[in-house]
Design brief:
single chain; 390 residues; alpha/beta; 9-stranded mixed beta sheet; 14 strands
């Protein structure tokens, strides 16, 4: 099947950065479309994959000779495979003083950001490319989609641009990720235990992270769990949503909430093999929340904005699912998978409005399709997430 190119929302941002910086570094999980994006946006640039053994060996043994092959710059894919190149790239871009010379991609933040901060600080723009958003994945077909199908399918580009079966692709993805990336990052003696850990994390997506409980269930130490969580964050599998701290004179929950960045991957790890399994699944609400938070985070990345997303929960159970703190103003959001609006959907939002004077807009995203204002809150169906200016 011929590969179908799907326009990425982040494209204008990448092109703008290439006009302003000598280097643009695009990071994101494997199979998120980094290579395809680079080839589409920079068709005239030489392309080199450092996953290719010959090119990687050449770059490692003779970095000057390797880079001299590309006097006009190049797209260097999976740059973390040869971190020594960063210093030589710094010398070249400082001499040339030309923007958009090198486009770098990487699928692991470990080491990559450290190398960038040492050699390319101030010289490179940083872009996070995540799997497809709802509008990228479904386009004009979104209004006709069932929420369970959307959750099960997820957003990895290969599912859409090459027509792959979601469960099969994600099975191969997990196996490749376990056997390749994880072993290059940390020394895991028993991969089966790590896979159990992955599945337990999927069951906790949308929930407050309890590392001790995870460690007990996996039979490993809390230190190991912290290390494994860091690996999943660095590989763009998980996002930890920080709790919001403010002087509310209340006891606040201080642990982060755990979210998968691709809802389809979470469903696969939970053993959900088709959309029908989600109809009465006990974790459907948490999975729906995961999808919404992931969509908002993708919007943040696509706009090149800083991470100012939080959640709020106090010791009495008052909670707001999502807060964007902009200093003098805040946007708050409640997320409910139900298709019928109930009065208790507004409890957390109403409580937070009373204790904070900074709220300038409130949203309720739910599993239905009606959009209106109620209780000074903008109610929006999940299909209209791209229209939210959160």
């Amino acid at each position: 099947m011929a590969k179908k190119y799907i326009e990425r929302t982040i494209s204008p941002l990448v092109l703008a950065y290439a006009e302003q910086y000598p280097v643009v570094t695009i990071m994101g999980p494997r199979q998120s479309g980094k290579t395809t994006l680079c080839r589409q946006l920079f068709p005239d640039k030489a392309y080199v994959s450092l996953e290719t053994p010959e090119d990687r060996l050449f770059a490692q043994q003779d970095p000057v000779g390797f880079l001299n092959r590309y006097p006009d710059g190049a797209v260097l894919d999976e740059i973390q495979r040869v971190p020594d190149l960063f210093s030589y790239i710094q010398t070249i871009v400082d001499d040339q003083e030309e923007n958009g010379m090198f486009i770098l991609t990487g699928s692991q933040q470990f080491g990559l950001l450290g190398s960038i901060s040492q050699s390319l600080a101030g010289r490179t723009a940083l872009v996070d490319l995540l799997p497809f958003s709802l509008t990228e994945a479904w386009g004009d077909r979104l209004p006709d989609q069932d929420i369970n199908t959307v959750l099960w399918t997820g957003g990895y580009p290969g599912i859409f641009d090459q027509g792959r079966n979601p469960s099969q692709m994600l099975q191969f993805y997990v196996r490749t990720y376990l056997e390749r990336d994880v072993r290059t990052l940390i020394n895991i003696k028993n991969l089966s235990v790590f896979e159990i850990f992955l599945r337990l994390c999927a069951g906790r997506s949308g929930q407050i992270l309890n590392m001790s409980a995870l460690g007990n269930e996996c039979g490993v130490t809390g230190k190991t769990i912290r290390e494994w969580i860091s690996v999943l964050e660095a590989s763009y599998i998980l996002k930890l949503l920080k709790p919001y701290y403010a002087n509310f004179n209340k006891r606040l929950v201080k642990s982060p909430k755990l979210y998968f960045l691709d809802i389809g991957l979470a469903c696969y790890l939970l053993g959900i093999s088709n959309a029908d399994h989600l109809v009465a699944h006990p974790l459907r609400g948490s999975l729906f929340e995961t999808m919404v938070v992931s969509e908002i985070w993708k919007q943040t990345c696509n706009r090149g904005e800083a991470d100012t997303l939080y959640y709020f929960r106090d010791s009495k159970g008052h909670e707001v699912d999502l807060i964007r703190d902009q200093g003098i103003s805040q946007s708050i959001m409640e997320i409910k998978s139900g298709q019928t609006i109930a009065s208790d959907f507004f409890k957390g939002l109403d409580y937070y409005k009373k204790i904070s004077s900074n709220v300038n807009q409130a949203f309720l995203v739910y599993g239905g399709d009606k959009n209106h204002i109620q209780n000074n809150t903008r109610i929006m169906g999940w299909r209209d997430l791209s229209d939210i200016d959160f």
